[in-house]
TrEMBL record, chain B:
It comes from the Bacteria. Residues 1-20 form the signal peptide. It comes from Microvirga vignae. It is found in: Periplasm. One of its GO terms (cellular component) is outer membrane-bounded periplasmic space. One of its GO terms (molecular function) is peptide transmembrane transporter activity. This is Peptide ABC transporter substrate-binding protein. Belongs to the bacterial solute-binding protein 5 family. Keywords: Signal, Transport. The lineage of its organism: Bacteria, Pseudomonadati, Pseudomonadota, Alphaproteobacteria, Hyphomicrobiales.
UniProtKB/TrEMBL annotation, chain C:
PROSITE patterns: ABC_TM1. Signal peptide: none annotated. This is ABC transporter permease. The chain crosses the membrane at residues 12-31, 100-121, 133-160, 172-198, 242-270, 290-314. Residues 94-311 form the ABC transmembrane type-1 domain. Keywords: Cell membrane, Membrane, Transmembrane, Transmembrane helix, Transport. It is a multi-pass membrane protein. Its main location: membrane. One of its GO terms (cellular component) is plasma membrane. The keyword Transport applies. It comes from the Bacteria.
Length: 309, 522, 323
């Protein structure tokens, strides 16, 4: 089946400082950094700790945001159905979403790069086996595979739905599909590099394959990987949200943005709009910002990837 | 050819819809769907309630939920283990076949078949014998006081139809046998099934030849299942439905505030409770003695939960807090038992200290998130309250598909249980399923392994007691022991809350059944 | 040529075998059908007997063998939940999902191609920028949020369109269609849009990228140099060439759309295969889940194989390499 054959270019060292980016991309980048930064610092900047079961009171449930008439100044964006401060829940929730999305990208990229290098460098049977596995994986869409993996995990390990294990399961569920993209891209690039003189020379002087792959080929195939990773981060955050919305993601005691939207969705008709609205907005803005930056990166550094998804 | 066919069809449909607009149609929705049309091939109370529109039992529940004659007009016990039923005459099935004793015998035999999934509903019945065309004897294993209660859930099918359609035995997944009965229903009831499409909808039309006096004015019932609460409410408010049952509690205020709609509600028979593990160790504290074995700890756990707050916030004042394990209309209920311990943080802490746990302990709370009304929210609240007195509670919620199997495998330290005593509608089912040890067919849902010799004895005595007053006294006594020993922590009695369009009149029942043969629409 | 065909088919068969094994082994371990099927006060003995009668006490390998043999003979088993043959259930649901996917595909092509062309021809115009911005928002908004917002606006607030289900359907043989009645067509609009949005953005971006590529190619420059009319160059030469990959991707994406319909069908209570799958998951209806997985896998493998073979037929270079 088809592969994205792209000739890798070394990434410019002044990538982030170059003023080639249009203003919209810079705004998006700043927004993404702001949300990610706030989320990472959630435990310092959030007014309450929503994951501490003893910290909230049912009696405070469903208070509207502070800027509305009935709002309570203690809770800037209001409270959820359990009396949790919504702002705190969102900060922690964004942290969970980003951690899972980032984790999935990291796992998928690592796995994909390693398998892609192996397949491209050795070819033959190794290549055939890895690519057949990739084909099987690709016969299922991300969301279906992720639903399956989390469902199975829950059935096999009773603890899978708890706050400690759910993120691990989610990361695996998302990464199990996404590594294929990296593997295919890296494989194609590796094939091109392997045919070049410097790799042949390295082989001739008897360097071990692991050293050739990691020290010589890898740096030359990394730039498309970074671009794919950025775009994938947005997709992974969305997949996590969808799973949590369908009820197989993060538990309500440790909500992600998707879980908060799922909970809030049950209240939209009863006039309690804030529980769903604020997390949904945060999610869309975060994903949008990452997508804008990713798009720009792709167009800028790897136009060929544009066609593939 | 093809476009013409399409045109013809759309004209025909147009004509049909024009007709439907004239007729009195009730369109309604619930989150679950009928799983099958075969009354003996399922054990779900929702499907049972739907099929009651198509089939009649020998005895049925009246508008006041009293047992009353249906296809049987009278009955008596001829021996302690044999009941004789006089059948109603001039009753016809939907296909025109007359109803006789043969149909009753064939139906009971079909339900007693080992492949019938619902055979447990009449586990004490041993057989049915025809005496004459309109008289039938039903035999039980020894004296059995609740036979009529059980028979109210046994729908009578047509013998000739079953013979003609090779459906004398129920379908069986194991042998790969499916029968016509799972997608066709021929009964004697007030409505006929016009079409049945799983998850898309079921249409019933009125049976003009029903034997009973008609109290409804419907020509047609269109049922469509909608799982999502939000979509169901949206469909009602946008005029696509006349009734939603149940209506989500958080939307009741909005629905009753919208002009043209109203909310109707009544307490359900279903009690929500927490099952506590009485095993030597808790999953949360392996290697240590289970603190929940100490009565004081269990009392503390009860005192530590602010049920008033749960009622007010989570249940929006629609539930009723309770201290016992059966609802007021159910035999076995007594006012003296129905006293909640009350929310008392200091007392809870004191009891924990006396029990030797001044700093609390660890436990795990497991709950379903798609079975009972607001189940997940209730559990988050309880976990939060327990954590405040020092009982560090690790909460896990999951879908009923994985939750109930795990409860059956006794994997939980504390877990949520909902019990409506259905189908017999009798407190004995609490004793026989929740409070007794798992042996001799008892204790099927006693997942916490609660055990008390006094209750064991009372249960076995009540099982064969034919004197109703004595039997009820035994149930009350057993339930008092259960409360005193904190066998379970009762949470509340669920409400039955529905929402209807103005002009629709539907009676509600505490068993959560929808009985549309009492409904009228304008 | 025959060799290529055979090797592709062999690969497809191999993939399907693996898919079937995965689908079976995985589903065998999800949940426990016994508990979902027995009544709430069933005794321990009753449950054990049910387990035996379902064959769940047999070794896993035996269960898989049975599964495979039955599957090959076209028998996908009987749904635990409905006690009806799974093949029949899927056949009943297929029309609903395929009609939804068809509407979504048409919507996305009908809007995606012109918008993509617009963006390619005037990349810096106001319209193009707006469309670009819209497309980014489109792929950044989760499907379920779009669906809920559409229901809130068009069904609840305005009351123009139904919020759930298929409306009135007409049976043409075993195929039930919503295309022939007004209520059926109205019911298709909101879910169709929800499902199409992502696909629409994808096609728009693809057309734009392809057009830009083609427009900068030598033969277009040559055509321009010859002074051919602009319209002819843009729509006859450039768009035609840009559409080839669009058609391919649209074909390849049909499987994804069917899978993505899971979310759309859940939000709109659309009685298709996605809803069947989700409800099967919550009821642990193993035969239905296994069949759905096999079906989607088969669809993907079929589409991919057909596309590959077509490529081999069309592209002589590929033919030479494979041979």
């Amino acid at each position: 089946m088809k592969t994205a054959a792209s000739s890798p270019r070394p990434m410019s060292p002044s990538l982030m400082t170059r003023i080639g980016a249009p203003i919209s991309v810079m705004i998006a980048g700043a927004l993404a950094l702001l949300i990610v930064g706030c989320a990472l610092m959630a435990s310092w900047i959030a007014p309450y700790d929503p994951t501490d079961l003893a910290s909230f009171e049912l009696i405070n449930a469903e208070l509207p945001p502070a800027f509305t008439a009935e709002g309570d100044s203690h809770f800037l964006l209001g409270t959820d159905n359990q009396g949790r401060d919504l702002l705190s829940a969102m900060l922690y929730g964004a942290r969970v979403s980003i951690a899972i999305g980032g984790g999935a990208v990291l796992v998928a990229a690592t796995l994909g790069v390693i398998l892609g290098l192996l397949a491209g460098y050795f070819g033959g049977k190794v290549d055939a086996v890895i690519m057949r596995i990739a084909d099987v994986i690709l016969s299922f869409p991300t969301i279906l595979l992720a639903l399956l993996v989390s469902g199975i995990a829950r059935a096999l390990f009773p603890g899978a739905a708890t706050a400690e294990w759910a993120p691990v399961i989610l990361i695996c569920a998302i990464a199990i599909h996404e590594w294929v993209q990296y593997a295919r891209t890296v494989r194609a690039a590796t094939m091109v590099e392997t045919a070049k003189d410097y790799v042949r020379a390295a082989k001739v002087i008897g360097l071990p394959p692991s050293r050739i792959m990691l020290r010589h080929i890898l740096p030359n195939v990394m730039s498309p990987v970074l671009v794919i990773a950025t775009i994938n981060l947005a997709a992974a955050v969305l997949t996590e949200a969808t799973l949590s919305f369908l009820g197989v993601g993060m538990p309500p005691t440790y909500p992600s943005l998707g879980t908060l939207i799922r909970i809030g969705n049950e209240f939209v008709f009863s006039g309690i709009w804030w529980i769903a609205l604020f997390p949904a907005l945060t999610l869309v803005i975060l994903v949008l910002a990452v997508n804008i930056v990713g798009d720009w990166l792709r167009d800028r550094f790897n136009p060929k990837l544009r066609v593939k998804r | 050819m093809k476009p013409r066919l399409a045109l013809c069809l759309s004209v025909a449909i147009g004509a049909l819809m024009g007709f439907a607009a004239e007729a009195k149609t009730l369109r309604w929705s619930s989150p679950t769907d009928l799983t099958t049309l075969d009354p003996y091939a399922h054990t779900e109370s929702f499907t049972t309630s739907m099929l009651h529109h198509v089939f009649d039992p020998l005895v049925r529940r009246s508008r006041n939920l009293e047992l009353e004659p249906a296809l049987a007009v009278s009955w008596k016990t001829v021996r302690p283990d044999t009941w004789r039923f006089e059948l109603r005459r001039n009753v016809k099935f939907h296909n025109g076949n007359p109803f006789t004793a043969d149909d009753v015998v064939a139906s009971i035999n079909r339900l007693l078949d080992p492949g019938a999934r619902a055979r447990g509903n009449i586990s004490t019945v041993t057989g049915a014998q025809k005496v004459d065309d309109y008289t039938v004897d039903i035999t039980t294993k020894g004296p059995y006081p609740l036979l009529l209660n059980d028979l109210a859930g046994v729908y009578i099918m047509d013998k000739e139809w079953m013979e003609a359609n090779d459906a004398l035995k129920p379908g069986n997944i194991a042998t790969g046998v499916t029968t016509a009965a799972s997608s066709t229903a021929v009964g004697t009831g007030p409505f006929k099934v016009e079409s049945y499409k799983p998850d898309a909808g079921t249409v019933f039309v009125v049976n003009p030849d029903w034997w009973d006096k008609t109290q409804h004015n419907l020509d047609r019932i269109e049922f469509k299942p909608i799982k999502s609460d939000a979509t169901r409410v949206a469909a009602l408010l946008s005029g696509e439905l006349d009734l939603i049952a149940p209506a989500p509690l958080q939307d009741l205020q909005r629905i009753s505030g919208s002009s043209g709609f109203k909310v109707i509600e009544e307490p359900s028979l279903r009690l929500i409770m927490l099952s506590l593990s009485f095993r030597p160790e808790l999953k949360a504290m392996p290697g240590q003695k289970n603190p929940q074995l100490d009565l004081k700890v269990r009392q503390a756990m009860w005192h530590a939960i602010d049920f008033e707050a749960i009622k007010k916030r989570v249940m929006r004042d629609r539930s009723r807090n309770t201290g016992t394990l059966v609802a007021p209309p159910v035999p076995g209920y007594s006012k003296d038992n129905d006293k909640p311990f009350g929310y008392d943080l200091d007392k809870a802490k004191k009891l924990l200290t006396e029990a030797g746990y001044p700093n609390g302990f660890k436990t795990k709370l497991n709950c379903p998130n798609d079975r009972y009304i607001n189940d997940e929210q209730i559990c988050v609240a309880i976990a939060s309250m327990w954590t405040k007195v020092g009982i560090q509670t690790e909460l896990q919620t999951e879908s009923r598909a994985t939750y109930f199997p795990r409860q059956d495998r006794h994997e939980f330290d504390v877990s949520m249980v909902g019990w409506a005593t259905l189908p017999p509608m009798d407190g004995f089912s609490v004793l026989s399923s929740l409070l007794t040890e798992q042996k001799e067919g008892y204790g099927g849902s006693n997942s916490g392994a609660y055990s008390n010799p006094q209750i064991e004895e009372l249960t076995r005595k009540a099982a064969v007691e034919l004197d109703e007053e004595k039997r009820r006294a035994m149930l009350v006594e057993a339930l008092k022991v259960a409360r005193d020993t904190v066998a379970y922590i009762p949470v509340h009695q669920q409400p039955v809350a529905w929402a209807i369009r103005d002009g629709v009149e539907v009676p509600q029942f505490p068993d959560e059944y929808v009985r549309l043969w009492f409904a009228t629409v304008k | 040529m025959l060799k290529v065909l055979l090797s592709r088919l062999g690969q497809a068969a191999l993939v399907m075998l693996v898919v079937s094994a995965i689908s079976f082994v995985m589903f065998r371990f999800v949940g426990d059908p016994v508990s979902s099927m027995s009544r709430e006060n069933a005794s321990v003995e009753e449950k054990a007997e049910l387990r035996r009668s379902l064959g769940l006490d047999q070794p896993v390998v035996v269960q898989y063998g049975r599964f495979l043999a039955r599957t090959l003979s076209g028998d996908l088993g009987i749904s635990y939940r409905n006690q009806r043959p799974v093949t029949q259930l899927i056949a009943e649901r297929l029309p609903a999902t395929l009609e939804l996917v068809l509407v979504a595909t048409i919507l996305s092509l009908a809007l995606g191609i012109p918008l993509g062309v617009l963006c390619a021809l005037k990349p810096n115009g106001v319209a193009a920028r707006l469309v670009q911005a819209f497309s980014l928002i489109g792929i950044s908004t989760p499907t379920f949020v779009t669906g809920i917002v559409l229901i809130l606006v068009f069904a609840v607030s305005l009351g123009w369109l139904p919020s759930f289900g298929r409306g009135q359907v007409v049976d043409l043989g075993w195929w039930s269609t919503g295309f022939l009645t007004l209520s059926g067509l109205k019911a298709l609009i909101l879910p169709g849009i929800t499902l199409a949005l992502y696909q629409l953005t994808l096609i728009m971006r693809l057309v734009r990228a392809e057009m830009i590529d083609v427009l900068s190619s030598d033969y277009i420059r040559f055509a321009r140099a010859r002074g051919l009319p602009r319209r002819y160059i843009h729509f006859h030469l450039a768009l035609r060439n840009a559409l080839m990959p669009v058609i391919t991707v649209t074909g390849l994406q049909i499987g994804s759309l069917i899978a993505f319909a899971i979310v759309t069908e859940t939000v709109f209570q659309w009685p298709g295969m996605g809803l069947l799958f989700i409800q099967a998951v919550s009821f642990v209806d193993i035969p239905v889940m296994a069949a759905y997985l096999l079906f989607v896998g088969l669809l993907f493998v079929l589409i991919n194989t057909v596309v590959d073979i077509l490529y081999a037929v069309v592209d002589p270079r590929l033919r030479a390499r494979s041979a």
